[in-house]
Write a structure and sequence with these properties.
This protein is about 0% helix and about 55% strand. It is built from no helices and 6 strands. A 5-stranded mixed beta barrel has the order 1-2-3-5-4.
Length: about 100
């Protein structure tokens, strides 16, 4: 995969799948994305489908169906062969001290 950072984002969403939240990185599949600032508003095709935390303290902090607030970096992820592209938000990039996942 190729990973390209795009922009800092802050939003609320609902956890759709927490089955990989116990691992490192912790991965939460998400839905119902709602931006919390102007910089976090994107066209539908750029809305992230997952939140990925490199920080261990954010493992297992949210469950399926739970709403969370997230501050991190939007990242474009593309398979090397170009067959798939998706977007995710990464927590723990060291680009900002304001990166977190908060259960609501």
């Amino acid at each position: 995969y190729y990973y390209t950072p795009i922009a800092p984002v802050k939003f609320q969403c609902k956890v759709k799948d927490d089955s990989e939240a116990m691992f490192r990185p912790a991965i939460y599949k998400i839905e119902e994305y709602t931006s919390l600032n102007q910089n976090s508003r994107f066209p539908k095709e750029i809305i992230p489908s997952a939140v990925v935390s490199m920080i261990g303290c954010y493992r297992n902090i949210a469950r399926n169906g739970q709403k969370i607030e997230v501050s991190g970096v939007l990242e474009r992820v593309e398979k090397v062969d170009g067959s798939e592209t998706f977007y995710q938000v990464v927590i723990g990039t060291a680009r900002s001290e304001e990166e977190y996942i908060w259960p609501l």
